[in-house]
Amino acid sequence: MSKKIGLKEAMSIGIGGMVGGGIFAVLGLAVSLAAGGTPIAFLFAGILALITSYSYVKLSMAFPDRGGTVKFVNKGFGKSIFSGAINNLLWVSYIIMLSLYASAFGYYAPNLLQIGGETIDFHIYASSIVFLATAINYYSIKVVGKIEAYAVIIKLIILLSFVVIGIYGLFGNPNLMQLSISNWEAPISILTGGMVIFVAYEGFELIANAAPDIKNPKRNIPRAYYYSVIFVILLYVIIACVTVGSLPFKEIATAQDYVLAEAAKPMLGKTGFTVITIAALISTFSAINASLYGGSRVSYEIAEDDELPHHLMSRLWNQPIGLLITAIATLVIANLLKLESISTVGSVGFLLIFSIVNYVGFRLNDTIKGNKIIPLIGFLLCLIALIIMIGQQYSSNRTGVIVATSVIVSCFLLEWIYKKTLSKMG
């Protein structure tokens, strides 16, 4: 029998999933797209996550299952080619997130120790951290859990300290004027910025996987989702304000890939830079650790539901074979794609998945006893945001859009081939 978890533990799953490597990886990217409107971009993305969390609350209470999102999609559409393709996309989106975290680690780590030049250092660090996390996952899942528990506390203490000292440091800082409306990009650019960095919020969906183990679910499941999402929205918006208000835009652009560490310099000098760099490394490492486990679980659940070959349920060194596939795919993507493209592909994947989960919430309204309007709004907003982002990014980041489209088409095509093969065999 599994151990029941309380509200605090459930919230730490949600907060830990969101405040992983996301904020460290995408903050500079958000500023490049939204400029002084970056806090608004984070607010846009957060509101979308909060609306979507309503559907997750209702579905988690009606269908508590360790399969989480996979099970919700299957409840809404049955075990069809469509649901199989969306669930495959969820697995691929996990891999994309892992690549994002590995890239962030690859950009931050050389600030502490350089080995052989910018490009070589990036590839060495981004690859090494994936190897290390994979080895830990194979060694012991208990160790993964322990690392997560400590990492959540460490990164939150450092980020909250950054926020408190940062707010104090804003007084009298001439860069504070960069937050004024005159320095905001056009509303469409701010919205695009919010959607490209939407990946920084996707981690709340991990609470769904823990739903069967949450004590007093009627009371604690809604609180776990809403409290963790609202907390992270506030945290991200304040971090964005502190960053934009502390550094000139030129410096933010120069240090785009490790901007949070750079933002600590005006307040705390080289020490602040080093502390935030260490926080980024701990956060991205713990996020890789947990997401590798989550990704392998997703592939296992999909195979269990006959939406991928049953070979994915087989074990290698006492772990699902999906763990090794997830790790190898992460290494390939992290070393081939640029950070902006990875972020775009991840955001496209999760916006589409969340629009589908919202639609399931709308469709199963009578079963889950929820408000019909909120999931419908979530579904429409996710789709509109997705379309706007693809349109905007097509001109500035065509690679990201092409990769994202190819991933979605491949998920549907592979599921169709697999289902056809099954029916011929059956």
Q: In short, what is this structure?
A:
This protein is an all-alpha fold.
Account of the 3D structure:
This protein has 426 residues and is an all-alpha fold. The chain has a single domain (7-425), classed as Amino acid/polyamine transporter I, CATH 1.20.1740. The chain is 78% helix and 1% strand. It contains 18 helices and two strands. It has a two-stranded antiparallel ribbon. α5 (81-108) runs antiparallel to α13, α5 packs across α14 and α5 (81-108) runs antiparallel to α15.
Poorly predicted regions: none
CATH topology: Amino acid/polyamine transporter I
Instruction: Report on the biggest sheet.
Output: 2 strands, antiparallel
Arrangement of strands in the largest sheet: 1-2
- State the CATH architecture: Up-down Bundle
* Number of helices, where a helix is a run of at least 4 consecutive DSSP H or I residues: 18
The radius of gyration computed from the alpha-carbon positions, rounded to a whole number of angstroms, is: 20 Å
End-to-end CA span = 36 Å
CATH class category label: Mainly Alpha
Name of the CATH homologous superfamily: Amino acid/polyamine transporter I
**What's the β-strand tally?**
2
Order of helices and strands: HHHHHHHHHHHHHEEHHHHH
- Beta content comes to under 5%
Summing up helix and strand content along with how strands pair, one would put the structural category as mainly alpha
The dominant shape is globular
- Share of helix, binned: over 70%
Mean pLDDT: 87
Number of domains: 1
Protein traits:
426 residues, mainly alpha, Amino acid/polyamine transporter I, two-stranded antiparallel ribbon, 78% helix
